[in-house]
């Protein structure tokens, strides 16, 4: 007699789910032991990998970069399937090597001698926070032999710790303490900078610093860096080497992993509404040992029994599911899980693509192929000096840059409240708001001092029009409810480990031992302690959970450390 196969259901066809399916399906001997199903709520695979098209160009609505090619499993697959080359141009194909043009609100281009010292200050502070070795690359180094950034970091974290109390230190407060310390060390005099109307040196430095903070917000998805935990920052790992984008599209990686699976194994349009499981056998009279312990209820009314379920839904979806009374899990998840889920951060990051229509600008910017990699340095939102025509949701946008060298499609990143607001705006509101902003930044773009007393030479005013826009909507899409996770103040790396813990949990005492093991497993970027928020983190978590099951069924000897 042939024993009944165990049924493994993977919830979610994103990077983690497809990787787990690939591993389980291809493992030697697994086909005799398992019946495998992937259920996906959406109508496509890929999840937060959403390669798309805009204005004739291939674009990424979600995951964009391979964060360091050295040792990245995503890079390895991309190489194997030859996805890193294309006859057509692709998003950020030139890397991020283009020199940015940094312009201050009001239209004055900032010289490197103003921008660079603050940029290296910021970079050194972040390196310090991330536990990297700090080298002083500041152009002022020669003139400031005594200025040591590592000491600055020590000083800033010491002051912060004493202000906030240990364990509550945020990256945001550390950074600001670093800037203040820098000013004290520089004995900064708050003088007017020649040529820069409306900007004192200190205001300008603070605004450049804020621009870098805004870039950091999009990297981490923490809408407010004061909510980003300082201590966890040094646990995050990056792969070495350059960061690149994928010529044939990020989706090609997921498609390649999915290509080994037989048709029908992935079921699209199957949204899980409820997961019934058996944490304690004795309390659950309904459970019979010859039926499968987990029962999935779908939005379409259908049900599916399973022996093991790998949950890969986003942290945002999990947060929503524990908030509602009729949560996704029945019985509800144990406390250590719900606490980790609520403490960890999950923010919104969105990308905006704009098709350039007409442009009337100073000669420098006339030509589409020369639209700059524009970095924008804004006045503070509460400043009287701000241009009131620029909408609030643009004020934390650090840059606007062509998709690739001579593309007429521009790309911007948004985070936090601004990213949420973007999702609710109409295309017309976005076009008007961005046009106002860009036109204002590209006007009067010179160092001509005559501009200071009036509104400038009318010929120098520019008008930039966009014909079409496309934005991602990660915050409002019910299948994601945000973009990626971060360690919030009050949380820690341990919460990421708790996220990965399968249920019933080992720790729940002897009661657990009477119920079937490994009923609910968790994968996804938010379950990886050192590579959370990334595609390779999701990939590794998928492998980890597949291997957990393979090991349970003794199909692999050792469980590797992911
Ligand atoms: C704008 C943006 C930019 C990014 N940039 C990068 C980058 O440059 N580099 C990088 O490495 N990473 C980046 N990321 C992060 C990366 O995309 C994610 O970390 C990774 O793709 C997450 O994969 P996952 O499998 O964990 O989750 P997901 O991709 O979210 O997969 C989960 C799947 O579950 C499905 N699902 C949800 N609820 C249900 C339900 N109830 N029933 C059934 N199915 C359900 C979802 O539809 C989804 O397909 C970015 C993300 C975003 C949003
Ligand atoms: C300086 O600020 C004032 C508002 O206080 C504004 O009217 C003026 O246009 C600004 N000048 C420049 C060059 O930005
Ligand atoms: C994924 O891309 C499509 C365009 O191809 C877009 O309509 C959809 O909104 C994107 N998903 C999210 C969550 O942004």
TrEMBL record:
Residues 496-516 are annotated as: Disordered. It is found in: Cytoplasm. GO terms for cellular component: cytoplasm. It comes from the Eukaryota. Residues 15-550 form the Amine oxidase domain. Its cofactor is FAD. Its main location: cytoplasm. Residues 502-516 have a biased composition (Low complexity). Keywords: Cytoplasm, FAD, Flavoprotein, Oxidoreductase. GO terms for molecular function: polyamine oxidase activity. Belongs to the flavin monoamine oxidase family. This is Amine oxidase domain-containing protein.
């Amino acid at each position: 007699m042939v024993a009944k196969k165990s049924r493994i259901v993977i919830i979610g066809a994103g990077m983690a789910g497809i990787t787990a399916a690939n591993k389980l399906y291809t493992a030697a001997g697994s086909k005799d032991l398992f019946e495998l199903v992937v259920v996906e709520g959406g109508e496509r695979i890929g999840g937060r990998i959403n390669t798309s098209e805009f204005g004739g160009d291939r674009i990424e609505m979600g995951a964009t970069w391979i964060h360091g090619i050295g040792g990245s499993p995503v890079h390895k697959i991309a190489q194997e399937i030859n996805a890193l080359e294309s006859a057509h141009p692709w998003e950020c194909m030139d890397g991020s090597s283009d020199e940015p043009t940094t312009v201050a609100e009001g239209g004055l281009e900032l010289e490197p001698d103003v921008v660079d010292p603050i940029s290296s200050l910021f970079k050194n502070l972040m390196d310090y926070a991330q536990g990297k070795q700090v080298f002083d690359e500041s152009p002022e180094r020669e003139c400031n032999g005594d200025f040591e950034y590592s000491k600055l970091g020590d000083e800033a974290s010491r002051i912060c710790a004493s202000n906030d109390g240990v364990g509550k230190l945020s990256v945001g407060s550390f950074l600001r303490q670093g800037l203040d310390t820098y000013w004290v060390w520089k004995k900064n005099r708050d003088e007017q900078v020649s040529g820069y109307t409306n900007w004192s040196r200190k205001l300008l430095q603070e605004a450049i610093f804020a621009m870098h903070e805004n870039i950091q917000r999009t990297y981490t998805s923490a809408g407010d860096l004061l909510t980003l935990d300082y201590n966890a920052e040094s646990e995050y790992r990056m792969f070495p080497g350059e960061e690149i984008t994928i010529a044939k599209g990020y989706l090609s990686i997921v498609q390649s992993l999915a290509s080994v699976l037989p048709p029908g194994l992935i079921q699209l349009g199957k949204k899980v509404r409820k997961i019934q499981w058996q944490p304690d056998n004795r309390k659950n009279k309904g459970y019979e040992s010859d039926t499968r312990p987990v029962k999935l209820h779908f939005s379409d009314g259908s049900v599916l029994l399973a022996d093991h379920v790998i949950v890969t839904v986003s942290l945002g979806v999990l947060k929503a599911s524990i908030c509602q009374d009729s949560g996704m899990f029945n019985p509800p998840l144990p406390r250590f899980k719900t606490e980790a889920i609520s403490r960890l951060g999950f923010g919104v990051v969105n990308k905006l693509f704009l098709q350039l229509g007409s442009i009337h600008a100073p000669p420098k910017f006339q030509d589409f192929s020369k639209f700059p990699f524009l970095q924008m340095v804004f006045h503070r939102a509460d400043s009287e000096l701000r241009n009131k025509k620029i909408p609030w949701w643009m004020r934390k946008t650090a840059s606007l840059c062509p998709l690739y060298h001579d593309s007429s499609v521009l790309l911007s990143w948004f985070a936090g409240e601004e990213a949420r607001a973007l999702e609710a705006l109409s295309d017309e509101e976005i076009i008007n708001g961005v046009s106002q902003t860009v036109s204002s930044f590209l006007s009067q773009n010179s160092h001509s001092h005559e501009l200071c007393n009036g509104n400038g030479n009318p010929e120098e005013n520019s008008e930039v029009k966009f014909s079409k826009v496309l934005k991602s909507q990660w915050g409002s899409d019910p299948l994601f409810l945000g973009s990626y996770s971060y360690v919030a103040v009050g949380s820690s790396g341990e919460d990421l480990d708790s996220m990965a813990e399968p249920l019933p949990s080992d720790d729940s005492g002897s009661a657990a031992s009477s119920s079937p093991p490994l009923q609910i497993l968790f994968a996804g970027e938010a379950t990886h302690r050192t590579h959370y928020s990334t595609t390779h983190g999701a990939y590794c978590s998928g492998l980890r959970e597949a291997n957990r099951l393979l090991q349970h069924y003794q199909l692999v000897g050792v469980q590797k450390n992911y």
